[in-house]
Amino acid sequence: MNEREAYNVLNILHFGDIFNMNKLRGNFPSWTAAWHALGKKSKLDPETEWGKLEKHGVNLILAGEPDFPAFLNEIPNPPLAIYIKGAPLDEHPKIAIIGTRRATLNGRGIAKNFARNIAGSGITVVSGLALGIDAAAHEGALDAKGKTIAVLANGLDTVYPRQNAALAARILKSGGTLISEYSFGGETLPYRFLERNRIVSGLSSGVVVVEAPEGSGALATANCAVEQNREVFVVPGPLNNANYAGSHNLLRSGARLVARPEDVLDDLNMLADTDAAPLLRFPVENLSKEQKKILSALEGAGEPIGVDKIGELTKMDVSVISRNLTFLLIQSIVKEEGGRYQISK
């Protein structure tokens, strides 16, 4: 029995309880010593449990081992070990993209566009495989044929939520990685999402928040990032949209406002070389009916026009125009100068 096998079986025995596992680390000189002292009455067999990991293609890396992520060694309360499935972890730059599970179509489009361009610049996109913004971030990275890492709040013998099982399979097939600090059988419990969040931010140089309402778990991840001395970036949204209430509070607290993927890359000194692939725009065919009407009006005008003129041409309410212009500006589909708008070239 080696240290990895001992840690794994102890993690199962203690139901993945981080507090108890930390106590064991302080009370015993090694994980094997802890198992010899505590596992006598257990029916668990270290080698059998390890065989289950191998059968599913899952590896375990202990803190302190050479291939344990250096970034995770730096954070408060680092994981004692991580289970990984898929490609081995490397030290390439990583950026997390997070947000609400109940994302709007625009929010998902923004997350996907940011991820597509960040991954297309050679940066690994990290997220939590949740519905909404997380899923869109993973999908955007995959669309760019880039690398993405999903950090789960349960054991890697299952995928949660089930709706994203196919997405998890795509991540693995594309050369990405699934990560967890929980053993097989580890259930998805509410507090584990909070524990998971510190790993999402801890792996990353910066965290991009897209659509975070008040009380969103994305805000907890952003707080983890601050404690870990990571940069926090926020994509702003309409003032009357509840999905951005938490995002705007982050901005008031000092987070960086970003409108384009290159803003994030520039602030982190990760801008791609000039001969790299150009930044990708949100596909026009995926725009809403209102956004397409605005583009049609701008194209027909033949010159930069203001919101009032757009309203006159589209017969849409000013609040609807403003909301959709914000999205089009963030996606670099239109540009604004002196209160007048035109299609970006």
From TrEMBL:
<feature type="domain" description="Smf/DprA SLOG">
    <location>
        <begin position="60"/>
        <end position="268"/>
    </location>
</feature>
<dbReference type="Pfam" id="PF02481">
    <property type="entry name" value="DNA_processg_A"/>
</dbReference>
<comment type="similarity">
    <text>Belongs to the DprA/Smf family.</text>
</comment>
<protein>
    <submittedName>
        <fullName>DNA protecting protein DprA</fullName>
    </submittedName>
</protein>
<dbReference type="GO" id="GO:0009294">
    <property type="term" value="P:DNA-mediated transformation"/>
</dbReference>
<dbReference type="InterPro" id="IPR057666">
    <property type="entry name" value="DrpA_SLOG"/>
</dbReference>
<dbReference type="InterPro" id="IPR003488">
    <property type="entry name" value="DprA"/>
</dbReference>
